[in-house]
């Protein structure tokens, strides 16, 4: 009987973790302005230019979800004027990734024209959520 209770508890915990992870994966979250100056310097070192809205994707060569995220980001950037896509390999830029609190791939940062990170997502972002977040920052392509 004890084994059955342990099994039920483990399955319940695994189910709860799976539900939590699935709800959080790929969600765009607002970013607080803390560490803004350090983040701007790290972004500038990666090639983010002031005056442009930029989608920064941190990826790795062996990351399958990174390819899916790239397709979503390319589609979204193609639909909006003034949005640039920058893919950053974490292998080559590990120090910058750590400065920007990137701990998994893919991680997507939405950077406004002032060079501030306004949203971030760990995992493949939802296309509609990304378009909604970028709409106030960039213009729609006709």
Automatic annotation (TrEMBL):
Residues 32-139 form the Thioredoxin domain. SUPFAM superfamilies: Thioredoxin-like (SSF52833). CDD domains: TRX_family. It comes from the Bacteria. This is Thioredoxin. It comes from Micromonospora terminaliae. InterPro entries: Thioredoxin-like_sf, Thioredoxin_domain. Gene3D superfamilies: Glutaredoxin.
């Amino acid at each position: 009987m004890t084994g059955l209770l342990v099994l039920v508890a483990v399955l319940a915990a695994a189910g709860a973790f799976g539900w939590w992870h699935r709800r959080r994966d790929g969600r765009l979250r607002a970013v607080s302005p803390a560490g803004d100056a350090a983040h701007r310097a790290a972004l500038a070192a990666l090639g983010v230019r002031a005056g442009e809205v930029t989608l920064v994707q941190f990826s790795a060569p062996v990351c399958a979800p990174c390819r899916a995220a790239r397709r979503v980001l390319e589609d979204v950037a193609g639909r909006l004027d003034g949005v640039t896509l920058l893919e950053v390999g974490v292998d080559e830029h590990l120090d910058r990734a750590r400065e920007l609190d990137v701990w998994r791939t893919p991680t997507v940062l939405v950077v406004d024209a002032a060079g501030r990170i306004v949203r971030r997502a760990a995992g493949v972002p939802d296309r509609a959520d990304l378009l909604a977040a970028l709409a106030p920052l960039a213009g729609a392509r006709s």
